[in-house]
Amino acid sequence: MEERLMEIIDPTAAREFKKTRLSLRKHSRLHHKRVGLLDNSKPNADRFLGYVGELLQKRYDGIEIVFKRKMSRTEADCVQELMEKCDVVVTAFAD
């Protein structure tokens, strides 16, 4: 009887950690700023962004939240609108 061997391959690579600098920020604080929250309409993105909005309002005085829901991958009109109306935009991808 021929001996059969099975090779098991682990698809996970060793983790690499790199220290990098954050990109430059236009605003150092969000007090009295307008923050856009862009939901890409994936399941739970709205819930996550709602939570983010609540945290931001608790942390920063006078912050205004502008919530926008993007209904498709190609719908880019709302991105430009948020960029024009808001000081900062946060987007979420969730499932």
What does it look like?
The protein has a domain of 50 residues. The protein has a 3-stranded parallel β-sheet with strand order 2-1-3, with helices on both faces. With 95 residues, the protein is an alpha/beta fold. The longest helix is centred in the middle third of the chain and has 15 residues. The radius of gyration is 21 Å and the shape is elongated.
Please give the structural blueprint:
Blueprint: E1 34-39, H1 45-59, E2 64-69, H2 77-85, E3 88-92
Parallel strand pairs: 1-2, 1-3
Quick description:
This protein has a domain at 43-92.
- Name the beta content range: 15-25%
Across the major sheet, the strand order is 2-1-3
Coarse morphology:
elongated
Radius of gyration, CA atoms, in whole angstroms = 21 Å
Class inferred from helices and paired strands: alpha/beta
* Contiguous runs where pLDDT drops below 50 for at least 5 residues: none
| DSSP helix fraction | 25-40%
Give the SSE order as H and E letters.
Answer: EHEHE
| Count of helix runs | 2
| Gap from first CA to last CA | 50 Å
Count of β-strands = 3
Overall average residue pLDDT: 83
Main pleated-sheet profile: 3 strands, parallel
